[in-house]
Amino acid sequence: MEIKKKTEKEEVPVKDFTTCDATAQMITKGRREGVETAFDRAANMKACPIGADSACCKHCFMGPCRLNSKDPYGKVGVCGATIDTIMARNFARAIASGGAAHTDHGMGMVDLFREVVNGKIKDYEIKDVQKLEAVAQSIGIETEGRSVKEIATDLYKELERTYTQVEGEIPFAKRVPPKTLENWRKHGIVPRGAMREIMEMMHRTHMGVDQDYANITKQCSRTALADGWGGSMVATEISDILFGTPSPISIEVNMGVLKEDHVNIIIHGHEPNMFESMIASVHERTLIEAAKAAGAKGINLAGMCCSGAEVLVRHGIPHAGNFMSTEAVLITGAVDAMAVDVQCIKQGLVKVAECYNTPLITTNPRCRIEGATHVEFNDHDPKACTDEIVIKAITRFKNRKAKIEIPKNVNVGVHGFSHEYINYMLGGTFRGSYTPLNDNIINGRIRGVAGVVGCTNPRVKQDWVHVELVKELIKNDVLVLQTGCSQIALAKAGLTTPEAAHLAGPGLKEVCETVGMPPVLGIGSCVDNSRILIAASEMVRTGGLGDSIADLPVAGCAPEYMSEKAICIGQYFVASGVYTVFGVTFPIVEGTKFHKHLFEELETMGFGKWGFAVDPHEIARLMINHIDKKRKALGLDKGRERVLMDMQDRRAIDAA
Ligand code: SF4
Ligand code: MSK
Fold first, then answer.
1. Do residues 458 and 602 share a domain?
2. Which residue from 4, 414, 450, 598 lies 20 to 30 Å from 297 (Cα-Cα)?
3. d(Cα 643, Cα 623) in Å, to the nearest integer?
């Protein structure tokens, strides 16, 4: 449901902004108190139609040039660039930027890992030796009879190539199913190091270089794969080795996790190291005593966005909400400090935090925000930063002036389904395997698997598309894997519990009840989309579902995406062989050659392809049709019918 622009006189009703009751309550409180959020700004600022279609270019100073998306071939830029070149270059730069964000995060994890292995950092340690050995073995590092330090040393040296390698293939290319890898080699898109790929992407999209949309798309795929099978996958694997591999854990979600009588600290961003240190700080006896001396019952730590998604799957730390709730949570007046690191941190937080006298604390030198307090985080002395944040929060608690109103909403969910746990859950300790999953797909109890991931975006009603889409998928026996802000939307809707199995179709319900799992599996943060790639590879390796990822009855979707990282994730799924549907808007003009290339031709080249729809039921239809197409190609199409919506379902949509 698209949010309409408000006129001078009318204010957009809060119920049009979000289906999250807690967020709605806080937007209403904010309006009473004269506090504006991104929801209001989005309603007041119409998206630029030329930019939305990617029909403008500012890659040189003969421009900027604007083409007419209604008549895309009627004009070219001053240099002669066509609409296809302009759209492809813009798309490519979004991928370069999104991929850079993930790979810089991943490189930071390798830096930390190296320092831990070499004994230069003592505050972190290798927590999961089994995972260390498994990752090392997956790329051919000998583990038999060797010490943890020897294996870890070889591993960090090898994984550094993910970023710096000038020629050849990145280490995790070894994990790609052979037929998928063969197709990448055929098309010349097996990634080298991310630095090389991103550099080449920026070069090729400079004015007067690559002006062939299909050739630009190849580098889009290569750069995106350097993220999915490179930077992001390394970030996930190293984080598991250092902080522990997730396994299912019951967690509380939504703003009701804040406690009026506690010092409340929110961590928001993406990198786990600061959050891990914060967990240690809030358990520091002296700091707990200081909080009590200030009149608090204790210190209450909660996460938001992907920081929260990553840490909840490892430690069960409560989660206060997804991307579009980060300003709203400050309006509670109960947040005594919000500490942020990198990515998805709205500059608008500064103003809202100021209104409630909440310290907004930046911690990463890459992300300082005018008006925020900066307390630099350093892996070599992490607690210096996180202890100081706790002290600032205690001080704010002592001097609380803001009117406090904490929504009562708290939902409980089970999250933390890492690839390793899915293996164990389905196959058991001694014969951990994907065979039961494949068998259930082959026998039709599970129709297919969908990844529903990504952000929330104020251009659509918060959480609504995520929740409706996932409900429709599970009703049709599609098992859903989730990361990032999307899984928080579903957790708030109560769908990440085993009890939610009653909402699934009969086949999926039976599997969920037998195993005791939810029909919607939350697996972590944005970089943890790499876990979905590994799960897909494992399904291919297990057998019976084709020879490449492109053969699998799977589909992906980011129905409320907003970030360039999402475009990069979408492209690495497409290049890996997955049909990937995006919602909200798609920055390519329909009816152009570049559109046809992304939405049709890539599939004929052995990849996945892009899809687009705004309505969740239409998205579900596209994904289910694709899953059925793949089932048919595998000869698994017998006896499966899509559940048609009845009148009651229709009325519910109309009323929404
Ligand atoms: Fe215009 Fe070409 Fe310059 Fe882009 S590169 S701004 S299309 S002249
Ligand atoms: S935090 S990229 S809003 S998922 Fe990863 Fe959420 Fe999207 Fe940021």
1. yes
2. 414
3. 14
Q: Is there a domain that residue 142 lies in?
A: yes
What is the three-class DSSP state of 197?
helix
Segment 495-510 shows an average pLDDT of 95
What percentage of the chain carries pLDDT values higher than 90? 87
Q: Which ligand is nearest to the CA of 569?
A: 2
Residue 641 above 50 pLDDT? no
Atom of ligand 2 nearest to the CA of 270: 5
What residue type is assigned to position 248 of the chain?
P
Q: How far is the CA of 55 from the centre of ligand 1 (A)?
A: 11
With a 6 Å cutoff on the Cβ, whether 121 touches ligand 1 is no
Last residue of a domain, one of 353, 372, 398: 398
DSSP letters spanning 592-650:
SHHHHIIIIIHHHTTS--EEE-SSHHHHHHHHHHHHHHHHHHTT--TT--PPPP-HHHH
Buried b (16+ CB within 10 A) or exposed e, 488-527: bbbbbbbbbbeebbebbbebbbbbbeeeebbbbbbbbbbb
Instruction: Give the number of whichever ligand sits closest to the CA of residue 81.
Output: 1
- Tens-place pLDDT, residues 79-122: 999 999 999 999 999 999 999 999 999 999 999 999 999 999 99
**Are 314 and 188 in a shared domain?**
no
pLDDT in tens, 408-465: 999 999 988 888 888 777 765 555 688 889 999 999 999 999 999 999 999 999 999 9
Q: Which of 618, 541, 529, 614 lies closest to 574 in space, CA to CA? A: 529
Write phi, then psi, for 92 (nearest 5 degrees): -60, -40
The 3-state DSSP class for residue 140 equals coil
Which domain, by its residues, includes 287? Answer: 255-398
Q: Say which residues have a Cβ less than 8 Å from residue 198's Cβ, sequence separation at least 6.
A: 96, 99, 100, 103, 223, 226
Q: Which ligand has the nearest atom to the CA of 65? A: 1
Q: What residues form DSSP beta bridges with 590?
A: none
Q: Is it true that the peptide bond before 64 is cis, omega within 30 degrees of 0?
A: yes
**Ligand 2 midpoint to CA 601 (Å):** 29
Q: Answer yes or no: do 216 and 270 share one domain.
A: no
DSSP for residue 2: B
**Residue 208 alpha carbon, nearest atom of ligand 1:** 5
Kindly state the average pLDDT of the residues 391-401. Answer: 97
pLDDT per residue over 432-448, tens digit each? 688 889 999 999 999 99
| Strands 554-558 vs 448-452: parallel, antiparallel or unpaired | parallel
What integer pLDDT is reported at residue 427 of this predicted model?
A: 62
* Residue 211 covered by a domain: yes
Q: How many angstroms separate the CA atoms of 227 and 191, rounded?
A: 9
